[in-house]
Amino acid sequence: MILGIDLGTSMVKAAMFSRDGECIGVASRKSSPTALGGGRIEQDFEEIVTAVSEVVREVCADCEPPEAIGITGQSDGLWLLDETGHGVRPAVSWLDDRGNPYLQRWIDDGTFRAVFRRNANAIFPGSHAPLMAALKDGDPEALMASHTASYLKDGILQRLTGARVTDASDASLPFLDIVKRDYDPEILKMLGLSDLRRLLSPVMPAPGQAFSLNAEGARLTGLPEGIPVHAGPFDLVACAMGAGVRKVGDGLIIIGTTLACEVMVDRVDTQSDPVGMTLCMPEEGRWIRAMPATVGTATLDWVLDLVGATHADVETLLAQSRPGANGVTALPFFSATGERAPFVDVKARGQLCGLNTATTRADLVMGVCESVAYAARHCIEAAGLTGRVLVCGGGANSQTWSQMVADVLQRPLYIAPRPEVGARGAAIAAMNVAGISYDADAWAEPEGVIEPRRETAARYEAGFAQYLDTVEAARGLWNRPAVKEQGLLCPAI
């Protein structure tokens, strides 16, 4: 048995897998970020620790102890810990927008572009650099009291094993030299954060390390001491591994809270437009080129709440409209932090157009879902897709929405093995590090394929072209001086 733990933004899960890749059981607990108002969103680290304890105990209750434990989860955000791995203050979520003005300053003065030219990673508001800068001004006492500016899964690893390390996939953005896999002092200097270098955990060498479950970890999980535990890679890379992205050019679309579109690459491109992430994979010479857009199921949640519907109504509502949404079009940029892929604009805002008195609830849902599908194509093509493309995430559970994505791409869409693609990837990474043999093909066999419909090709090709034109027009409006001054960020709602 191999145990995979996935520390999501709103859910903590543990999944037990047999040696041949079959998922034996899953346990989960909600762990929602707390909105404090004014764009501030934080999470309680001890709540996550408790949730990990509960899900591991539940999923292991009727099984033999696992041979290895792999941990993945949300990256970014700022988890300030003391020397024992306990929180110094509530963690600042990656959804928090207090880093926005710092990022905007770096964009305006050229620092943002200069950092990308060194490590092919575009800083976004919820990553370590802007949040550390914000706390340096707003809560310097917390930084002074901290031993580690951690990532969530690394904090859990420390509580289970005592190890203070991080994975190169997490550290890739924003401070890492992603070829040498070590921190770049010049990037820290550019960002004015050299004095906080002491807070950064050592980066594990490729392909990573396993650490033994210690007495405290055994107490938390109910498992015997000595089990090898591996934390890394973080969820974007873990999902690629769990879905079966193994060839250069293959891609994955994760329709989750974030619409994460990613492609495996074998070179680092620092000269392209400064956007997206280039994340170290466990093996040297391979990276995931990721375009994690802030649109995704959160955008669907917004429109469902607007029309008084739930996720259980999605298939019915989509069936009541038709491709093209009876003229309704949308820009899905409803995040308070703007957009980070395949372009960066902290002022990006959502838009609904083409409404009239005949517009239905179903048309609104269809229009928004289509806009997310267009965003997926925009992102996956920008990431460099040349091979096959897989899909996973909560949104992929909608057959109609998945079909829509295949139609917009006009490519076959392979369904990643379910359930728990991220935890599956964490388990694979743990087996690799622990030296456990397994059948890689069996672990990543697609569950099926969705073929694109030819009859929708022309409509969606035209719709995608219109989407791109609308994005470019809106970007000009978002950044007009009068719009900035008056706070009128969207010309149409």
Description:
With 493 residues, the chain is α+β, with helices and mostly antiparallel strands. The protein has two domains: 236 residues, Nucleotidyltransferase, domain 5 (2-Layer Sandwich); 154 residues, Nucleotidyltransferase, domain 5. The chain contains 18 helices and 22 strands. Strands 16-17-15-14-20-21-22 form a seven-stranded mixed sheet, with helices on both faces. A six-stranded mixed sheet has the order 3-2-1-6-13-12, sandwiched between helices. The radius of gyration is 22 Å and the shape is globular. The N and C termini lie far apart (51 Å).
Descriptive key words:
single chain, 493 residues, alpha+beta, Nucleotidyltransferase, domain 5, 2 domains, 7-stranded mixed β-sheet, 18 helices, disordered C terminus, Carb_kinase_FGGY, FGGY_Carb_Kinase, Carbohydrate kinase, kinase activity, transferase
Tell me the layout of helices and strands:
Blueprint: E1 2-7, E2 11-17, E3 23-30, E4 34-37, E5 40-43, H1 45-60, E6 68-73, E7 79-81, E8 91-92, H2 100-109, H3 111-119, H4 128-138, H5 140-145, E9 148-150, H6 152-161, H7 168-171, E10 176-177, E11 182-183, H8 185-190, E12 211-212, H9 215-221, E13 228-231, H10 235-243, E14 251-255, E15 259-265, E16 277-280, E17 287-293, H11 297-307, H12 314-320, E18 329-331, E19 351-353, H13 361-382, E20 389-392, H14 399-409, E21 413-415, H15 421-434, H16 440-443, E22 448-450, H17 457-478, H18 481-486
Parallel strand pairs: 1-6, 6-13, 14-20, 20-21
Antiparallel strand pairs: 1-2, 2-3, 4-5, 5-8, 7-9, 10-11, 12-13, 14-15, 15-17, 16-17, 18-19, 21-22
